[in-house]
Amino acid sequence: MKDIIEIDFNNPAIYQDVVWGNTEETIKFVNGDLKQFSGKNIGEIFLVSTHPSGLSKFTNGHLLVDEIYNEESVFGKTIGPKGTFPLLLKVLSAQKYLSIQTHYKNKTEAWYTLSDGEMLYGLTKEGEKALQTKEGQMEMAQLLKVANKVEQIAKYFNYVKFKAEETYLIHSGMVHALLKGTILEPQKNSNLTIRGGDWGRNDPNRPLHIKDFFASIYPYAVEPKSITPRAKIYRTEKEAPVNSEHLCLVATENFALDKIILKDGWRMLETFADRFFIVLVTKGKIELTNGVVNKSLEKGQVFILGATANEWVFSGEGEVMLVYVPHIKKGIITPLKNSGYSYEEIAEIGGPTLKENDVYIEMKEMGFL
Asked: Has this prediction a pTM greater than 0.85?
């Protein structure tokens, strides 16, 4: 495997036909041909995945999962001892409501919004109160079984109208449902979902998991706001691109998501030889090199950059998303502190629930908070 390799989107296994899917918007993300998906509701694309639900393939014909076993040194220390890949990256688009759901403790995900849309996100104060009694839980469960409109359950869950280019972190246990819109979804490599309600569909292929839903739910009210991006500011003339901007959008111990707004050259200062990066081009056309490999990247393409001691350099104009397993101290806390942010501001990158916020917990451990 080379140090940079492209994901193949002519791979039917990664396209998911689901009842709520918005084919036109989903396929648009990868510049696909809509004619190939006539009559289908494509709601998900497994962009980078070793999950059996949608195995990614490279343009060289190899499956991602096979490359990991053969080239563990290229993927770095973030690859598990049995060749386990740590990340799952999807794009989703909904024209109908997704189920009201939570996840088990092994799954945390983020939503980066690619369009305007609507969602349910966490409990309201009234929802928190309802969970404190058996009677309240029974009433909520009954409503979830039959509700087919947001208004029927709105007292329990935060209803959010989001704009494009916002970021939300969804910890395991946090109730959520995409109602409308298109999102990019980086997450820990797990595809398990616990459905508490499915808008009255009563589809045997989409069973409810009421007992697990209430056992797993994060029982406290959450403020439904997007995460404020934090910019890594370049300190020296050698490092500083004139106009390009590097934004940290969200970080957990399992994954981080950054956005590069490229208006001239940019050097990937946080490159580590022990980890790989997923690169998605969301705007424009750019060039990428590490001094050995040179590649042209265009909107809608997804690449994996292998672990390398060589520094990656971007040029051109556009926007790039980076998904990777971070070193929270070296890759998140230290550079943001050097950029002038307070520790409280840095903690917000880890999401709204401090007890499950990995950035906050790391800084507590270090004695900063």
From this structure: yes
